[in-house]
Amino acid sequence: MRVGGVQRRTIEPRADKRAVEVIDQTLLPHAFVTRELRTLEDAAHAIRSMQVRGAPLIGVTAAYGVALQLREDPSDASLASACERLLATRPTAVNLGWALEAMRACLAPLPPEARAPRAWTRAGELADEDVALCRAIGEHGARLFEQAYARREGQGALQILTHCNAGWLATVDWGTALAPVYLAHERGLPLHVWVDETRPRNQGASLTAWELLQHGVPHTVVADNAGGHLMQRGRVDLCITGTDRTTARGDVCNKIGTYLKALAARDNGVPFYVALPYSTIDWSIEDGIAEIPIEERDGRELSHVAGRSASGERVEVAILPEGSPVGNPAFDVTPAGLVSALVTERGTCPASREGLLSLNNENDGIPVTLGYTHRLPQGGRSDGDPVRTRDLWAFCESQETASVGPDMFDEFIRPYDQRLLNEFGGGAIHFCGKGDHYIERMSQTRGLYAINMSQPEYNDMEVIFRNTVDKGVKLIGLPRDAADEAHHAARDLHGNVHCS
Would you state the pLDDT for residue 410? Predict the structure, then answer.
């Protein structure tokens, strides 16, 4: 996109491969300032302080943060600590964890001396991939805009309302929710964007308005609470926002205030679209309201506001009575039922598990993660504590307490499966099972499953995957000693399967 007529990206590597340059978004719209990130701590600070923000850009910045750290120390400990440090900066955006995992998976198998150059290259690949997928999101979203414009039958410009900033400043280039705006605008589609100011950090007023202005897109900034009023009077044809995390069933977590726009849109019959990279789908989570951690940010963001004085100086002033307590949740969750469609680089789909799965590429298979099961102490049964292993809620009988037979399944496994569904939105790990009764009963629950590969009848991984995946099992965990065999079998059957 353009700044002062010059095309640029939000993050650009230096030629010497020892720094990256980012736009300090905390100073926009009144000052365009770039910062050099030269160390892991520089990258962590940029993410935490929101010099860079937006889920895709956060992920790419973190990837470069890993690369910068490995130039100083390419050891296993350094790689692990860099990922841990960066992951803690912003807990809500799923792209952050996704990008760090991509870096870890690429770098961990390499000898230390080969990691630094590969890390730099891999971070650049992630940046280029983000640009390509945002452009693809724009293509799919632009088709929706064309259809909406056709329904106006030539009666003025298409009226779009957006919340927060999901433009190119939130990504490496193009943006997510604004990518179709830019493409449609460049192709001559008459349109106008209503820009929510987006309190408390005013990303709409400060960032979205700034980048639309730079690109020459007609727009009007409105107060956060004006959206419903505009919809009631027929002045909004559609809403489109981004999302920091999307659950397996289509709930979306985005900047605080998004949920209220979705409610107003539903009440007024206005389509409410959400644009996202497929990587922001968190397949380990079903219920966004119950399971997504909501970042609580510094109350000063709400109690103070920054702007430009009459003399041109940047100033910050207090707007609350001294001593008033402040609550500042940064995000809210919009249930899938309020979302008209999800717009991804792979296409547009209903906001549902079935809709998201319909966009799987041929090589994706199903969203499967292989994980290792963990044993509880001897005698541990359904009153034991689940063990979290990445995306996996595991409950295992100890080897010494014998396997779970048909009778025990209904007594022990099914109630535990329900407990995990109720408490965590996940399912149960079934361990040490024998016989066809296991697969039959597994297909009747909604859990996440593990099979003890020491049992002879479960040595044929192809049979296991076909008999479980086809019946709705989405995650299969395996004991460590069977991981290699399972990994190869899973890849043969389902393509891109991550083994952890």
Answer: 52
The stretch 318-322 carries a mean pLDDT of: 95
Distance CA 40, CA 299 (A): 27
Positive/negative CA dihedral, 205, 245, 83, 18: negative
Average pLDDT over residues 262-287: 92
Q: Are 60 and 123 in contact (CB under 8 A)?
A: yes
Cβ neighbours of residue 264 closer than 8 Å, sequence gap 6 or more: 227, 228, 231, 270
- Residue 280: the pLDDT is 77
pTM comes to: 0.71
In three-state form (DSSP H/G/I as H, E/B as E, the rest C), the secondary structure along 145-212 is: HHHHHHHCCCCCCEEEEECCCCCHHHCCCCCCCCHHHHHHHHCCCCEEEEEECCCCCCHHHHHHHHHH
Q: 300 by DSSP, 3-state: which?
A: helix
Any residues with CB less than 8 A from the CB of 30 and at least 6 apart, and which?
307, 308, 314
Rounded CA-CA distance 341/240 in Å is 10
State phi, psi for 470 to the nearest 5 degrees: -65, -15
334: DSSP letter: E
Distances (CA, A) of 219 to 211, 236, 278, 329: 11, 13, 28, 28
What separation in angstroms does the CA of 150 have from each of 153, 186, 218, 296, 350?
A: 5, 17, 19, 42, 22
Of residues 259 and 427, the one with the higher pLDDT is 259
Q: Which long-range contacts (CB under 8 A, 24 or more apart) does 148-155 make?
A: 148/237, 148/238, 148/271, 149/189, 149/190, 149/191, 149/237, 151/237, 152/237
* HEC-encoded secondary structure of 18-69: CCEEEECCCCCCCCCCEEEECCHHHHHHHHHCCCCCCHHHHHHHHHHHHHHH
Q: What one-character-per-residue DSSP string does 271-287 give?
A: -EEEE--GGGEETT-S-
- The amino acid that residue 127 corresponds to is A
Distances (CA, A) of 276 to 191, 244, 378, 482: 21, 8, 45, 36
Looking at the annotation, which residues are catalytic? Answer: 244
- How far CA 493 is from CA of 298, 365, 370, 463, 470, in Å, comes to 48, 8, 13, 10, 12
Residue 455 parent element (H or E): none
86-141, pLDDT tens digit by residue?
999 987 667 788 899 889 889 998 999 999 999 999 999 999 999 999 999 999 99
The tokens describing 21, both together, are 């340059």
Q: Which of 412, 448, 453 is nearest to 428 (CA)?
A: 448
H helical segments located in 201-331: 203, 209-215, 227-232, 258-267, 288-291, 300-303
Q: How far is CA 387 from CA 98, 291, 380, 426, in A?
A: 21, 16, 12, 12
237 compared with 295, residue with greater pLDDT: 237
Residues β-bridged to residue 329: 296
